[in-house]
Amino acid sequence: MWKSPSSSSLNISFFIIHLFQLVSIMNQHVVIVSSQPLYTNSRWIVKSTTGQRVKLACVNWVSHMDVMLAEGLNQQPVDAISKAIINMGFNCVRLTWPLFLFTNDSLGSITVRQSFKNLGLFSSIVGLQANNPSIVDLSVLDAYKAVVASLAKNNVMIILDNHISKPGWCCSRFDGNGFFGDEYFDPHLWIQGLRIVATTFKATTNVVGMSLRNELRGPLQNVDDWYRYMQKGAEAVHAANPDVLIILSGLSFDKDLSFLQQRPVNLTFSGKLVFEIHRYGFTDGDTWSAENANQACGEVLNDMVSKGAFVLEQGYPLFVSEFGVDQRGTNVNDNRYFNCFLGLAAELDFDWALWTLVGSYYWRDGIVGLNEYYGVLDWNWLHIRNSSFLQRISSIRTPFQGPGYTETHPHKVIFHPMTGLCVQRTSLLQPLELGPCSEAEAWGYAPAKTLTVVGTYFCLKADKLGQPVKLSMICSDDSSRWDIISDSKMHLSSKLQDATSVCLDVDPNNVIVTQACKCLSTNDTTCDPGSQWFKIIDSTRVTKITKSFLQIKPIIHFLARNFFGSYI
Ligand SMILES: *[C@@H]1O[C@H](CO)[C@@H](O)[C@H](O)[C@H]1NC(C)=O
Ligand SMILES: *[C@@H]1O[C@H](CO)[C@@H](O)[C@H](O)[C@H]1NC(C)=O
Ligand SMILES: *[C@@H]1O[C@H](CO)[C@@H](O)[C@H](O)[C@H]1NC(C)=O
Ligand SMILES: *[C@@H]1O[C@H](CO)[C@@H](O)[C@H](O)[C@H]1NC(C)=O
């Protein structure tokens, strides 16, 4: 597609514009089509053919409820939903399934229509008939296959997630579906079900992974049985289909994989194993709103890393297969959690699946058409619930690093989770501001804690309270030293000339300024430091275009600086 320019009259500005267009196209329309197996290379999920990283940017689609049908098919045609998933920027779906759908013939063989009739959901049948006439009279089992086929046809990758045994909302400690040996959780039936599902979808190459069981939990949970049965389940899936990633969930509602630090999983195959964890605001109760937000963030991130994300260091991919927020933006607990969570997601560059696609459920908690405020689609499954939320998570959609993405030397980008944007420099004379991470400025973060624009002598410098930060060539004073402070380790702090401590912040125009540091005292529980939370993250991506310009013409910067003052 991209033809290298051959004209000798090519000038630099043409080159810059063209490259800019190319990069924005690459970054805005990344749809990773996968019709080939994926495997793992250390902590990365990669394509079998090229070895290039594929970052799973999935959304959860609920299909394990009482009706045993993927949600939303009364509202929109299945293909329209599949297309919407791609158009919203996801490349993958974690599609849930209840075990008994595949192991109990009398359940799997009833028609969709009958399943809805049994629950008295007559108005849903009208919607199903109108939107999905080819599905409404299929068996629920064939309807599941039809949904998988639609996703595959529309180039969506699929992770099949065994969410529960008995169809219904998940999960509680005492619902009989929590751990091997519970009322509805016979390990042998579960292994049989895994084998059936792996075999059924063996020919569907878009099915790239299977997560073997969601959120293990409850009074029976124990580490020995986890190894015993998870290893058996993994071997069963691998024997039936050696081309799917095998994804294992932790204990305590998929919060805890810490036992892997002492004892590795022992399997006969390699290059296929991925671990998953879940984290929501409510995972930690009301910690986020009741405690100081910096403290809460520090505690939760420590917990996430020590109980889950450490697997990256062990050389396994981490799939954070559930996270999400009330997208109305009114839940303080959720909002603080998400500012913190998104920083870690960018820093660790892990694979993920957002909860949830679902705009509304056929029937949940006894309510017909329950609105799902965590859903990216609105109640009618037609409109996006909150486009600014989608925009924000688009920052973690494309890889910052990994095989096939080492386009430049390792450098840093400065990420701002509250907006999902990165620090960028639009022109020589403008102050630094926030912009898409695909156009982020590349920084070095030196041991002396200076933040230097890569390829130049310019460093970031605090100037005045409430005023834009500057770029300067005098980089040895306290105003150009940036410490990472607070319990959250997400404030970047420096000093003004008069020794006042300040923190990097963002003004209403998205300009990067310094302000008094917020919420540092742990007894301060009402304030929200979100605007001052940044993450310095590793990247090897080609980002800001003027960077090449800068490297070609450092002299222009020098001149500009001397003629136009100290902005640059
Ligand atoms: C299969 O499901 C039906 C309907 O819920 C139930 O009555 C039956 O006991 C189940 N069979 C098995 C073997 O679990
Ligand atoms: C791993 O499993 C194999 C059999 O599947 C067994 O022979 C071997 O001893 C096990 N290794 C460890 C370290 O448990
Ligand atoms: C979208 O979310 C933001 C906060 O993330 C909130 O301020 C805004 O009101 C939300 N918009 C809608 C339409 O709910
Ligand atoms: C918070 O703690 C500081 C000392 O760490 C104390 O000076 C201050 O009075 C406390 N504020 C409140 C509201 O308790």
Account of the protein in words:
The chain is of the alpha/beta class and 568 residues long. It has 16 helices and 24 strands. It has helices at 12-28, 78-87, 99-103, 105-108, 112-118, 122-131, 140-153, 187-200, 223-240, 251-254, 287-290, 293-307, 332-348, 387-393, 546-552, 554-564; strands at residues 38-41, 44-47, 57-61, 92-98, 157-164, 207-211, 245-249, 273-278, 318-322, 351-354, 363-364, 367-368, 411-416, 421-424, 433-435, 443-445, 451-453, 459-461, 470-472, 483-485, 491-495, 501-506, 512-515, 535-539. The strands form seven sheets. An eight-stranded parallel beta barrel has the order 3-4-5-6-7-8-9-10. Mean pLDDT is 91; it is low at 1-32 and 546-568. Bound molecules: 2-acetamido-2-deoxy-beta-D-glucopyranose (4 copies).
N- to C-terminal distance: 36 Å
Structural class, judged by helices and strands?
alpha/beta
pLDDT averaged residue by residue: 91
The tally of helices reads: 16
Strand % is 15-25%
If you compute it from the alpha carbons, what radius of gyration comes out, rounded to the nearest whole angstrom?
A: 25 Å
Bound molecules: 2-acetamido-2-deoxy-beta-D-glucopyranose
The largest pleated sheet is described as: 8 strands, parallel, barrel
Shape: globular
Low-confidence regions: 1-32, 546-568
Instruction: Write down how many β-strands occur, each being a DSSP E stretch of 2 or more residues.
Output: 24
Helix content: 25-40%
Oligomer: single chain
In which order are the strands of the major sheet placed?
3-4-5-6-7-8-9-10
